Amino acid sequence: MNKDNTFGKKLQQIRKAKGLTQEKLAELAGVHEKHISKLELGTYKPSFDTLNKVLTALDLKIDEVGLNLEKVSVNDNPFYIKSVQILNSATEQELEFYYSLLKAGQKGLDIFKD
Fold it and tell me: Of the candidates 66, 89, 85, which has an alpha carbon nearest to the alpha carbon of residue 14?
C-alpha cells in the first residue's frame, strides 16, 4: 500500500459504509474491478475520467474522499487546479454552459488545422 494513500483509505471506508463490494462499485462506475482495488491500495492513480465515474457512482465530491486539489500531481498549473475545483462544484446547468464554451472554442481551433 502507498504510504500517503489517504484517498484510497477514504474511498474504501466510504464504499464499505455504503455496503458496496469492490465489484459492485466497479459495476456502478463502469470501470474494471481491479481499478477499484488498485485505487484503494494506492498503487493506481486514476485518470480524471475514472475518478469522476467513481465519485459519481458514490454520489460524492472530490473533497469528500480526502483528495487535496492543491497537491494534484497531474498538472501543477494553478489554472488547471482552479478549473477542477470550479467544475467539481458546478451545477448541471453551469456544466452545460462550460461545455458549450469548450465546444465553441474547439470549433474555433479547427480552422487552424491543416
Answer: 66
Is the CB of residue 29 less than 8 Å from the CB of residue 60? no
> Above 80 in pLDDT, residue 47?
no
Q: What is the pTM of this model?
A: 0.57
Tell me which amino acid residue 18 is.
K
29/36 Cα distance (integer angstroms): 10
The amino acid at residue 104 is A
CB 66 within 8 A of CB 59: no
Of the candidates 53, 84, 10, which has an alpha carbon nearest to the alpha carbon of residue 2? 10
Q: Which CATH class is domain 1-67?
A: mainly alpha
What is the C-alpha to C-alpha distance for residues 4 and 100, in angstroms, rounded to an integer? 38
Cα 45 versus chain centre, distance: 10
Locate the domains of the chain by residue range: 1-67, 72-114
Which range has the worst mean pLDDT, 11-20, 21-30, 53-62? Answer: 53-62
